Amino acid sequence: MIIIDTKSKIPLYEQLYQQIKEQILSGQLTANQKLPTTRELAADYMISRNTVINAYSQLEVEGFIKSIGGSGYYVEQLNFVPPISPNPSFSYANDIVYTENIHSIYDFQYGDLDYNCYKIKAWRKCITDAFDKISLQTKLSYDSPQGLLDLRRTLSNYLYISRGVKCSPDQIIITSGHQYSLSIIANIFSSENWIFAMEDPGYNGTHTIFKQNNYSIIPVPVENDGILVPELQQLQNTLLYITPSHQFPMGSILSIAKRLAILNWAGNNNGYIIEDDYDSELRYNSLPIASLQSIDRNNRTIYLGTFSKSLSPDLRIAFLVLPETLLPLYREKYQLVNCSVPSFLQIALTDFMLSGNYQKHINTLRTHFKKKYRLIINLLKKNNSSDITIHGSDTGSHFILSINTDLDQQAIIDRFAKNNIRVYPTDIYWINKCQCPKNQILVGFGSIPIENISKGMELFLNTLNDISFKL
Amino acid sequence: MIIIDTKSKIPLYEQLYQQIKEQILSGQLTANQKLPTTRELAADYMISRNTVINAYSQLEVEGFIKSIGGSGYYVEQLNFVPPISPNPSFSYANDIVYTENIHSIYDFQYGDLDYNCYKIKAWRKCITDAFDKISLQTKLSYDSPQGLLDLRRTLSNYLYISRGVKCSPDQIIITSGHQYSLSIIANIFSSENWIFAMEDPGYNGTHTIFKQNNYSIIPVPVENDGILVPELQQLQNTLLYITPSHQFPMGSILSIAKRLAILNWAGNNNGYIIEDDYDSELRYNSLPIASLQSIDRNNRTIYLGTFSKSLSPDLRIAFLVLPETLLPLYREKYQLVNCSVPSFLQIALTDFMLSGNYQKHINTLRTHFKKKYRLIINLLKKNNSSDITIHGSDTGSHFILSINTDLDQQAIIDRFAKNNIRVYPTDIYWINKCQCPKNQILVGFGSIPIENISKGMELFLNTLNDISFKL
């Protein structure tokens, strides 16, 4: 039984095709059964013969039926006819639902920017200009697997001036984010021959990539001025991931003595250092600290950067700088892998940097973040200095707070939440979870608008007062 | 000796900082050496004392010098001082240089679109609208690791209607390209326990990802209606990559009998099928063929799609649809991995699809490509039918041409190039290179403007006449 609905938007031939197909798949029409001729079927359903021919052609092309010259159409012999199951019902369990009242909460989250301090018009213009430019060009991203040369040239100059990084554009690879950069490193090396070591605590999004790639992961404890260097001495053939400019999440700066010791270790033990310089531009009382890469003379440092912290986490543009010695290995593995960043975004970013707007934006951002940071820190110090310890270094968009309290992290977070304040755990950043102080929380100030800080901090300080011991 | 250039754009304190740092690193200033006081240095160089204080603070923060209360500043004890090497000289050997005369060549390349048939205004508007929307929202891409729910919902409906794919938005993962999708699959499974098999010839960009991830790769020969199914019988625990709707590069359609046999094989041998449906929307004489996923009742098909062929290769948006049974494994490995596609592009694409502009664009593209395809094929058949065989199926944006000639692929390509025609090799798609016919070339027609085809084909046919045997 075929039902043809002439009022449906679905073309008639498609209705016919679908129903015959379902009848074959469900076994209603059986192997070698003769189908009505196109003329008969057209007459039966009062449709044009061309409609039937179209449907039969499609079924034939797909191998459901065969035409036997002169004799007509027959159902094909199909060995296995699976039953048809109903459509799956849709569930959205794993998705976050955005509620309207999110804005009544003072959210001290990490990793985002307040768009009020954005050079938004200039950036928007770069995007539309780039879009107009690219539509006349073609598949640039296929032709430049490491990213567009213009962007890599611009970046090479910028990195030298701003971070002391010495590299040619050939050493730069543009990627769609920090984790993509890491997956390239994980692929260039191999989990069979290399160990992955990382600072503990450290960024959990880094950990996950090397775990995914089956590396053995060695945690290296962090003290006030960075990782414990003696722990490295037993490690050979190791990739060491560190955040020297601003240890994540603890906020310390790796001292030059340790930097030199780590470079020394790498040179003597076939180690490579993965230097993640994620937010070095956001430094408030001094110049950004020169990168580790800039003082490495032995090609032992892989430098990672991102535009997520300085421009937008939603841009999905990051990069890595490989030592020249690793380029042949990279090219062997990535020769046929396309760049994952749209060219028009790469062109937009290049224009944004070359026009000076990026530097202006960074300056604005720095001034803006510095104000927010100092405002928060001053309020904390004035009101609760004896109840807390602030870990950080006048840098970036977050700090860690230790509170004199018996409560654990989740209980602290819950108490803040009762006062409409969102603060965040730090235990997710510990590999050795048991080493994580119970009384620490992470406070971010990137996305909270500056005008909300005073009101938010009032509630913040009240909560602190409630939960902390008085000494 | 320090040189302060008051006319330089570099701030004075930075000049001072840099030069003292270099002197420490190069050994000119030695450990524990006392530095001039800030007052002395300011007087010596006729700069403000604050400038010197700024420079010293920076050096102290980085651990190059230490201040000893009351006594002044001293150079730190650094264990290892590497020599300073000169800047690397930049080379651009690996980059393609775009020349102006590229447009005088008739380029039958594969993988790109002619932007003349683009709904460019509607798409541009979606991009700018999305940009304006996103700038008020925040880091959406961090919150939706599988991609924005709205896009996944839209895609889920679209795939059901257009390709028969049955899936919930939960099963869809938005990625920054075909290869990124494949790397997720390579990561979910493991090269230790799984074999990767793929059609031979097949897409070399697929091969490279599984090779990178250390999989054993088994080539499965392709005949006229798709891969040789009996070859599968010896394979267990295997991921099988195929292009059923339009075999790449040979152009055949996988028959329904083979589809069922392959599904059967997968069910009985713990196999998974990676169905790459890269250009199924570009079909000229019939409906797109329903996907393999749509007739799989056993959760054995991973469906891959891309917007590279239908919208733009530069968009860098693709997706995969996982069977529900693989979702727990995926979530375990990818819980902390961010989506690599900017949200504003995801929002733009959602709007483009929901507004009906995507479907209109596909229709335009199909009509346009069909015209080009038929024009080329008719010219070939009329003029050289005895010298050539065309492999393809009225689908997509390329076909394969076998030429009656003794020349090998490179020689054929060179002869075309002499007449300003670019055609492309097929041997790069063969795993068993020796199986690749010497006399085949790949002809793409996606990017060549329709108005250039007649003139281009004149030169094309002349070349064919020159190089082929007359039978």
Features:
14 helices, 471 residues, three-stranded antiparallel sheet, homodimer, alpha/beta
Describe the fold and architecture.
The structure is a homodimer of 471-residue chains. Chain A is built from 14 helices and 15 strands. With 471 residues, chain A is an alpha/beta fold. In chain A, the strands form 4 sheets. The first copy, chain A, has an 8-stranded mixed beta sheet. Chain A has a 3-stranded antiparallel beta sheet with strand order 12-13-15. A two-stranded antiparallel sheet of chain A has the order 1-2. The first copy, chain A, is elongated. In chain A, 47% of the residues are buried. Mean pLDDT of chain A is 86; it is low at 81-103. The interface between A and B is large, with 116 and 116 residues.
Report the end-to-end length of chain A measured between terminal Cα atoms.
85 Å
The DSSP helix count of chain A reads 14
Largest sheet of chain A: 8 strands, mixed
Largest interface: A-B, 116 and 116 residues
Give the DSSP E fraction of chain A (strand runs of 2 or more residues).
5-15%
Say how many strands of chain A there are. 15
Give the CA-based shape of chain A: elongated
Return Rg of chain A in Å.
30 Å
Uncertain regions of chain A: pLDDT < 50 for 5+ in a row?
81-103
Averaging pLDDT over every residue of chain A, what do you get?
A: 86
Order of helices and strands of chain A: HHHEEEHHHEHEHEEEHEEEHHHEEHEEH
User: What's the assembly state of these chains?
Assistant: homodimer
Report the helical percentage of chain A. 25-40%
* Strand arrangement across the biggest beta sheet of chain A: 4-11-10-9-8-5-6-7
What class would the helix/strand composition of chain A place it in? alpha/beta
